[in-house]
TrEMBL record:
Gene3D superfamilies: Glycerate kinase, MOFRL-like N-terminal domain (3.40.50.10180), MOFRL domain (3.40.1480.10). The lineage of its organism: Bacteria, Thermotogati, Thermotogota, Thermotogae, Kosmotogales. Residues 8-230 form the MOFRL-associated domain. GO terms for molecular function: ATP binding; glycerate 2-kinase activity; glycerate kinase activity. Belongs to the glycerate kinase type-1 family. Homodimer. Keywords: ATP-binding, Kinase, Nucleotide-binding, Oxidoreductase, Transferase. GO terms for cellular component: cytoplasm. It comes from Kosmotoga olearia (strain ATCC BAA-1733 / DSM 21960 / TBF 19.5.1). Its cofactor is Mg(2+). InterPro entries: GK-like_C_sf (IPR037035), GK_N_sf (IPR038614), MOFRL (IPR007835), MOFRL_assoc_dom (IPR025286), MOFRL_protein (IPR039760). SUPFAM superfamilies: GckA/TtuD-like. This is glycerate 2-kinase. It is an enzyme of class 2 (transferase).
């Protein structure tokens, strides 16, 4: 593997490790005086790691607790906490079973109790009890449609909240009269707290009108009864919750810049809010790489272009892939023939779309290698089949579940 590829993978690995939530959880807890009786509820792809960190410093105070994470994302026992794995990105029976367990633990608490609520992305699928009149089939149907529609996460979660008994601030109401301390790892651009994991303990800023507009915009099919459920108002203020964001994509980009510098590249963070269609982002970043190579603008070589964010994919084909893989594949065409360049795109959670890859990597030879294998990039993109294309040329990045979840990181190196 070329040095450049190694360097890109090194920067990614280093940055993800540096933003694992352990220290941040511990710091946030240490600076507060927590009562002697805590109920712990941890949700999301980083739930296990966040719960482990909390347990290490206030384990003696935790009277009961539930950890709900994605399949294959837990790593063993944590004291007496009940650990569940469940469906993601679409909820399943285990989601509801585990979440009901959490609701049992927070019912009948007193004003002296605190619910330590550890929130990470993926929480929307993993923490769910449907509202009355809503079935699990309704949720899977609507979620599947939304995920393929090209709707962004704020829009998707606007709908999820209103079909749920725990999202959109409703979980915090169920914890009353106990207090809730929510420590949040953000995987939503702009750190919108009411969107992260659909904001179970945060006042909802979205309205019924927003929900209807989104349903129409993306042509989402709903049973007529669900339209009535959508009307039930979510809490717009909560008086028992304290919230702190303990990690986000900005930090991972900053660490990536530091690491790039250590490896001899002049770094530039272009944005931490990249949110366009994945393939467009790939083409655009490739165009910047070309500019660097041909005209030393906006940076001279050796340099590292760093982008954070979460692109979207309108899934139209029936192939396999994810937004990071699509971005890398789209970039491959546009950097074809360039020497000493590489672009790598990963989900910091270690899973990109419904695949076992975290993302993809491409250099100036990738397009040529694909041609030799008889793979047409245009067709692969048209079929949303970036996984098989990149796999054929050894260009998938696989990290396994990382223990964190702070959006996507894209590194382009030019030497
Ligand atoms: N074949 C495909 N090619 C490209 N993208 C796909 C494909 N199939 C699904 N996707 C995308 O993958 C996304 C879900 O994957 P992933 O688990 O990485 O999302 P996520 O945003 O990290 O989840 P969460 O935010 O809940 O942590 C969907 O939103 C969809 O747009
Ligand atoms: O779970 C979710 O809704 C997304 O990961 C955003 O937090
Ligand atoms: Mg995410």
């Amino acid at each position: 593997m070329s040095d450049l590829r190694n360097d890109a993978l090194d920067i990614i690995d280093y940055s993800i490790k540096a933003v694992l939530p352990d220290n941040a959880v511990k710091e946030a807890i240490k600076k507060r005086k927590l009562p002697d009786k805590i109920v712990l509820v941890a949700i999301g792809k980083a739930a296990w790691r966040m719960a482990k960190a909390a347990h290490e410093i206030v384990g003696d105070k935790i009277k009961s607790g539930v950890v709900i994470t994605k399949y294959h994302h837990s790593q063993g026992k944590i004291g007496d906490l009940k650990i569940f794995e469940a469906g993601h990105p679409v909820p399943d029976e285990n989601t509801i079973k585990a979440s009901s367990e959490a609701l049992k633990m927070v019912s009948n608490l007193s004003p002296e109790d605190t619910v330590l609520f550890l929130v990470s992305g993926g929480g929307s699928a993993l923490f769910e009890v449907p509202q009355e009149g809503v079935t699990l089939e309704d949720l899977t149907g609507v979620t599947n449609q939304l995920l393929r529609s090209g709707a962004d996460i704020v829009e998707i979660n606007t709908i999820r909240k209103r079909l749920s008994a725990v999202k959109g601030g409703r979980f915090a109401l169920l914890c009353k009269p106990a207090k809730v301390l929510a420590l949040v790892l953000s995987d939503v651009l702009g750190d919108r707290l009411d969107s992260i994991a659909s904001g179970p303990a945060y006042p909802d800023s979205t309205t019924w009108e927003d929900a209807i507009r989104i349903i129409q915009k993306y042509g989402i099919q709903l049973r007529p009864e669900l339209l009535k459920v959508l009307k039930n108002e979510t809490p717009k203020s909560l008086d028992n919750v304290e919230t702190e964001i303990i990690g986000s994509v900005s930090r991972v980009c900053e660490v990536a810049a530091e690491r790039a510098k250590m490896l001899g590249y002049e770094p530039m963070i272009f944005t931490t809010t990249l949110d366009c269609e994945a393939r467009e982002a790939g083409s655009f970043i490739a165009a910047i790489i070309r500019e660097v190579v041909t005209s030393s603008r906006p940076l001279k070589k050796p340099c590292a272009l760093i982008f954070g964010g979460e692109t979207v994919v309108h899934v139209r084909g029936n192939g396999k892939g994810g937004r990071n893989q699509e971005l890398a594949l789209a970039a491959a065409t546009k950097i074809e023939g360039l020497r000493e360049v590489v672009i790598a795109s990963v989900g910091t959670d270690g899973t990109d779309g419904p695949t076992d890859a975290a993302g993809g990597i491409a250099d100036g030879n990738t397009a040529q290698k694909l041609k030799k294998k008889g793979i047409n990039i245009e067709s692969a993109l048209a079929n949303n089949d970036s996984y098989h294309a990149l796999d054929a040329v050894g260009s998938l990045i696989k990290t396994g579940p990382t223990g964190t979840n702070v959006n996507d990181l894209i590194i382009a190196l030019c030497k």
